[in-house]
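User: I'm writing a tutorial on reading structure tokens. Could you give me a worked example: one chain, its sequence, then its tokens, then a sentence or two explaining what the tokens reveal?
Assistant: Sure. Here is the example chain.
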Amino acid sequence: MLDHGIPFALTDRVRRIVAPNPGVMTGPGTNTYLLGNKDVAVVDPGPAEPSHIDAILDAAGDDIRWIVCTHTHPDHSPAWQKIHEATGAQTLGGPVVDDPFQDKTFTADRLLQHDDVLSTPEFTLRAVYTPGHVGNHFCFFLEEDGMMFAGDHIMNGSTVVIIPPSGDMKLYIESLQRLLDYPLKSIAPGHGELMEQPSEVVEWLVNHRLQREAKVLAGLQQLGKSSLDDLVKVVYADVDTSLHKMARLSLSAHLIKLAQESRATDHGQDVWEAR
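And here are its predicted structure tokens:
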């Protein structure tokens, strides 16, 4: 159930509330997760939409102790402020980074490190550093349920845009593979329904990115020295042209990875060539 504003129980200790911000980049809307029943952690409070904030406070109110952000993009973190003011909850997350889409209002009371743990009598939540989509991205593993809260590391229904300089395709693929180190039973994405076959999801995403990378190399070899605008039409010929502006960002991330691996040359002015 992805109805906006209505708490939906995924397990005995996890509820999901979907924000009313559906769109091309957000799918049905941003998923906010409430962990625990007595001492509650809010994972990804979502946009600063009053009705969504009210739904979170109505569902958990004075029981909210922590506000945990996977990353600080405007559809994931801005509601932290009103929830913090209403409850005094501690904020946890990464630092604001060099990225054009940051929620610069966010302040973490506790800056997270990989493998940090938030523990209560009801749950154990482990921070998993997953840079790639953006440099301050964390996933969170709920040990009791084998559930990975994936933010924008993994979305249900579409692939994630990687935006340099903070977004990094090489780190993104490595971070996807890192998830397989955990005993996953499900993935709770930042957008869309719960994903019940996590290993298959991760493996598909890694293969999809590597297949796209192969298309980038093939496109460079076909066009020779080429601009991003020309290359995106070839590499993303299977994607609606209305999405090419965003695809161009992920294309840049692929090219940067190839340059890091000495497989492509950046001639400047968004002109690239295969090595």
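What the tokens reveal: The two ends are 49 Å apart (CA to CA). The helical segments are 50-60, 80-87, 169-179, 198-223, 228-235, 244-260.
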